[in-house]
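Troubleshooting entry. Yesterday's outputs looked truncated, so today I'm pasting the complete records for two proteins to confirm everything comes through intact. If either block looks cut off, that's the bug. Protein one:
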Amino acid sequence: MQRDPQWTEFVELSGVFFLHAMAMGAWFVPLGTVLDAHGLQAIKPLAFATGALAAFVSPLVFGAVADRHAAPARVLSALAWATALATAAVATALEWGAHPWWVLGWIQVMALCAAPTWALSTSLVLRRLTDAPRQFGPIRALGTLGWMAGCWLVSALDADASPRAPYAAACLWLLLGCLTLRLPCPPPPLLPEKLTLRQRLGWDALALLKQRDHGVVFLTAALFSVPLAAFYPYTPTYLRHLGLDHTTAWTTLGQTTEIVALFGLAAVLRRWRIKWAIAAGLGFGFLRYGLYALAEPGWVLLGLTLHGFAFTLFFITGQIYLDQRVHAEWRVRAQALFSLMTAGVGSLVGYLGAGWWFAYAQRPGQPGWPLFWGGLAAAVALVGIFFLWAYRGRGRGAR
């Protein structure tokens, strides 16, 4: 009989996800409106792209460190503190009216520190579970609740467009660094005497792409992240256009359904093959943008609620897939590669491409929102068709 986490262990693991996501939500969701309020609209696409640039470098590097040299909890703690300092520097630069390139530079430093952290949190939680499909969802749901709490905190402080938002995020990163010091630190595995530079940088994880299904999952994740990248910077602006204020709080509708989906994920994975769970996530992603394209507040809010189903069924199922199908010695690097493909490759193309597509969709005398969101819905549909065609799987009933 498989062992469930003890109560104290469950609280620790849930607390890691809760604080981590709370810090990310307090930073990421209001970032676009904070930059707009300080006249920095010109650097907004570049500011969101900093996370994508960072994801090309730091997740694999620190994933390799956590796999081979140091306990993931200690690596995560150090990175959380470094992220807190960089986030506070961004807030200070905004308050002092620093040059836009100084603000962007500090955002890039913050992104380099933060980029590996979610893969590290996921890996250290998964390695302490004995039945990830059944146990991971409820623990990960606390992360979603943390993201919502971060958004609520920003709106409660009336900081949706204020430097107080990144200051609050910096405090939360500091708390996360302290919490991870309490986690157990198993010794790293024995290593060969000599490691190549490629191994030390974590780039040997690219070998995972050679296995067909692994490659399809990684590539689909990157492709899906391209249209998904427009959701975060443009949803708050869209809600304001429709007359819905307190945008940071409104966006938590997607996290509400994400919690529901996380608690139901174990039942879904018992009944469905991973292929169909991932395909369902892509389907919800298509419906979300299709409803956005209707440009009516009620339909848009309904589309916003579908974000939770799309995110959970695709991205969380993808992380569980890697935990089940990749050898234990490679799992931190596999999660890091997943971050690189989603937050790196996909998001970089998505953030920069979304800026171009948004400008192209504008029409004189009328808003271009229906065309903007409709085009993104079509892109998600193409990704779904590719996945259904390319993924093979182990066959019905296989674990």
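Protein two, checking that the full record survives here as well:
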Amino acid sequence: MGCALAIGSSTVAGNAWSADKWGADQGYPTGWGGQFSRFPEYRVGNYSGGFEGMFPHHIMEKSPTPTNLDVAPVKNFKYKWGFFNKSPDDYLDSWSTTGLLICRDSSIFYENYRRGRSAEMRFTSWSMAKSVTSLLLGICLDKKLIESYDDTADKYLPELKGSLHGSITLRNLSNMSSGADILHDRDNRQIYPAAFTSGAANIAQTVANWNRRQEDQGRTYNYNELCPLTIGMVIRKVTGMSMSAFAERVLWQPMGAENNATWTTDAQKNEFNCIGFAATLRDWARLGTLVAQRGKVDKTQVVSESWIQECTSWSDKDRQVRVGVASPRFGYKAHMWHNKSDGSRLYFNGHHGQRVIIDLPTRTVMVHTAVDHDGNWQAELFEMFDAATKI
């Protein structure tokens, strides 16, 4: 899948290497020649709009009254990395990043792009779409379309009665704790063609047919795609519309998005909501800021503060996904990732380096898009983010 190259702040070397590996000499091509994500020279183009020409998708229209973002660059912003004081530009020149934005509330401290990308482009989320799904789940609970976070999926999806995923609570689905016999790395080879990439792909059928149980629900964190896909089915059922139409109405436009977003679908026009949401960096920053401001935009409560609190805390029902329990290095809750046990720092997390990192105490947000996940880039990214929270 390729390796990231750590070269400090050597801009010339970094760009020469990326031109060879990431398709600069081909104009960053798009399309199926890259076989979804296998060939690195297609990733830059496909991850910033190319997928929209490859897969069916829904469009979420921008807000008629977008929220304002002021560009207020912080001069001489540095962070410590090893023996060096580095800048965000140094970071971009060291890794396979395509875009980086740092903001607090309505002020952008830093924004820059690499590999021919620009602020007008939509960047795919990969699994950051799961966190968007979480916000929509919270809004369904806020609007009483779903009675309880601890309801089972089949309460709203009678077609899943008697199936494994129908019997799982929304809490355990969003905590990746279904008890299903499923392995992310092994079984995506079966799930993706069945539910997304083939001409006959059908999410509902794929979820209903997966009935291999490993253990009781709620015992173990086990990251997989069928948990969020089941929640997506519930959201479509209780709202009576596509997830995209619902998101446009209750999240995207109320949040004040300044650009359209897209969400890829299966052959039945249902969102493959474990991935596939694409937006500009500034609109990803608005989503992060919405969370940082406890669900509020100006005077509008888009997502309840109680749902943000749910996503950033752990009860006895969530023991298996606490920081240090789900993994020695991170925790999970309601399709949000955490690296602090008090829930004060959460992040959206996507394949090949997609991140939206949120520090609740300072309301600092960082958006990071990339085309590879090899190397120690994430540790450096969090060091940079730590420094940004102190601005």
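Both blocks look complete. Sanity check on protein two: Confidence is low (pLDDT under 50) at residues 1-19.
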